[in-house]
Design goal:
Rossmann fold; five-stranded parallel beta sheet; 22% strand; globular
Amino acid sequence: MKYDYLIVGAGFAGSVMAERIASQLNKKIMIVEKRYHIGGNAFDEFDEHGILVHRYGPHIFHTNSKKVFDYLSQFTEWRFYEHKVLAKLNGELYPIPINRITLNKLYGLELKSEADVKNYLETVRQNHFPVLNSEDIIVNQVGNDLFEKFFKHYTKKQWNLEPKELSPQVCGRIPVRFNDDCRYFTDKYQYMPKDGYTKMFERMLLSKNIEIVLNQDYKTILNEVKYDKMIYTGPIDYFFDYEFGKLPYRSIRFEFENIKSEWVQKVAQINNVSSEVEFTRMIEHKYLTGQQADTTTISKEYPQNDGEPFYPIPTEENRHLYLKYEVEAKKLKNVVFCGRLAEYQYFNMDQIMANTLSIFKNIIANGN
């Protein structure tokens, strides 16, 4: 059989693209996925204790885009959920992002208004200009002491690089609050798929036009499958057989544990911001899913260099290496590169979808 499109990868980018091409263009698609499941890093499943867990770390859906929210609402009902994070420092827990409660508890202050917080931060923040890296962007907002306590060691564990070696956008994604809002996100739409992400992906890909092949590296079947065009969502350097060298990624090792207690944390996520604790954060999965159970499952995250490519490492050197691959990618008329790995860029889930829907519009504009 001949396919109109071969799509490499069944994560958000590949699945959204497959659904759009199948439903809007009525084209035949084969999706090839090297893992044993669809859904990419958003994959969730029930563990042996009956707890629904996010196998690749917490995936919290949040967006201000009605377009993205409405699109996904075709494939899932929603459960309202606002994510909260606490930072563990010297045995005490503090709200993250830093807010008025964080400052009052940490320093024994009595800041009562947003103006009080702004005035306090004005006395401690530095002036690093131009802003060249992640250390600059944080100390410009909150000064050296808060940077050292909450950002420096956590960032080093996460990336195995000092904040001053990382692009400003890494730590720049984390806001500073002047009020006592303890939500991690403030987006208009904050929900979780009612039945989980995997069920949502199953509905998204339920089409007679879509065939899914799991546990398969696409390169092993290229000579056997006939297709007109390819949508590639894997690592761009792998596509080109590492012609210019490997693009570096951070990976994560997850340790899951079921605890014979209904709950163990006050919130879904606790960040360990000190250098003494090896793992970065601990997640209690029932908060994410709304599940009721007598036991609870937690996961600890240990960043590492080897393993599945999770996070493109945003340094200037890596950016220049990616641009070499991008030049080659643009020469290919029948291959579309789409997604976090193919574009070597960190995207939130809603950003991946918005980006993919935009690329799909370009496909239509260019005559399929």
